């Protein structure tokens, strides 16, 4: 009787009061529509048209721009580069972050709070400043590259063609290990202590506990961090665009798809084509992020 | 360590609460010995993290000629930090201060507004079961996966048609939306504001907005600070958007201004001002680092709330 009463009560309450939730969400949605949905719609519209070179005005060309992008060697040059970047950088960054988080969480570290704070510190450094900083460090003028080479007897020039991508990998890793470490660490703090006790009773050593208890327990956080990293890698722009001023001949206008879209718009006024590049890259990113999420959650089951 | 747990306790996390008591009582059966090897390895990583920052601080104390003639991690012949700061702030009629002012404006209005919108909306999503709620949530979560920079060019074209480029609104309006902030607030509000409390307030006859304002807002405070902090960082660091939206140097934020100074060293009429770029970089970092130090408690506890729900 009382259960029935609550159910009917809840239904009435739903229709009147719950609807007010919309009032809370509406302001966000209005701005969201303006800065997320509208540009996407506008970009899609642009991508279906092409500017007439001599007569002015736009003509509808259907999917022709898309055909051009997927057969554009410059686009693929950049796309393959960010894929390569992703394949190298993300495992290094997330690996370091995971090791750091596990170390700080393990209780075997002296002064764990200091480690946590300092490792997170680069996240507070604006990306632009980080690139300028490392750009100077890489240089031979007053950087540390010369000193390090003298010390190790090597002759690495970070701003040469051979090392450029590695140099960018290093900058991004330096910037974001701390952020990911914090995500992993926060997730580790929520693992119930009982699990560790059970593992200890079963005679699991520290490494065994890490691989069989801790890492599986924070799989969700790892998947999230991976997805954020995919998105970050695929929109690589700041680092190469700023380093370009230090090494103009090594980084071309289509070094990454994002730089390509940017330079098409602001160097070449090819807005329609630029919008198409942005959409294609967005779709590729979304697909890869989706696959990772799917795989991640399936393995979690 | 206890700090984080305090945060999660307020969020109503029973597991952590029990853990805190156990640690405080010192009866945890799993309290391993400190490892020198692990500490040593982590120290190596700490050095890697700190070297560029130490280099920056040392370099900011050097004159331009000392920068070029002395080794990176040594101090120069003259201690020029204060004259560098003075020169940075007064170069070209104090344009650096103007950029600092712009950055502050974008941060206060943009990040402040983003936090407000995310808080109110996250609360609405967490505490009301209105029709269409799942759709809203799916669309916004999907938006997290869209590269910001992929949106930037279309946004520029759209704003350009609307006559918004080269105005402060071109930077502020896109900063107002933080899908990640909304997600964080949604998760946080679900556990931080008990449904019973809302019911009690309703029985007392309080309206929904009054309940939000007088009851819920206080409970949401740690989450709000976290969202605000991350919004501040992303607005303070914003580079791509102002780079494409603004062509007037007097509207630039610090990030775009600094790269412009740095570019001065290249090309034909090159006029390198390395010491100013370096000192300016240091001045750009300091406020954020200070904020992070002061608000440690919040960003650490807030993020853990975000990762609970998965």
What brief labels describe this structure?
heterodimer; A: 301 residues; MetI-like fold; 73% helix; B: mainly alpha; globular
Secondary structure elements and pairings:
The complex is a heterodimer of chains A (301) and B (310).
Chain A (H helix, E strand, L loop, with lengths): L1 H15 L4 H27 L1 E3 L6 E3 L3 H7 L2 H34 L5 H9 L6 H12 L6 H8 L11 H26 L3 H9 L4 H12 L1 H16 L3 H6 L13 H10 L4 H30 L1
Antiparallel strand pairs in A: 1-2
Helix pairs in contact in A: 2-14, 3-14, 4-5, 4-8, 4-11, 4-13, 5-8, 11-14, 13-14
Chain B lengths: L1 H9 L3 H12 L10 H24 L4 H6 L11 H47 L5 H12 L3 H14 L7 H7 L3 H14 L2 H9 L4 H29 L3 H6 L8 H10 L10 H21 L1 H13 L2
Descriptive overview:
The complex is a heterodimer of chains A (about 300) and B (about 300). Chain A is mostly helical. Chain A has two domains: about 1-45, no CATH class; about 70-300, MetI-like (MetI-like fold), CATH 1.10.3720.10. Chain A is about 75% helix and about 0% strand. Chain B is mainly α. The two termini of chain B are about 25 Å apart. Mean pLDDT of chain B is about 85; it is low at about 1-30. At the A-B interface, helix 2, helix 4, helix 5, helix 6 and helix 8 of A face helix 1, helix 2, helix 3, helix 5 and helix 6 of B.
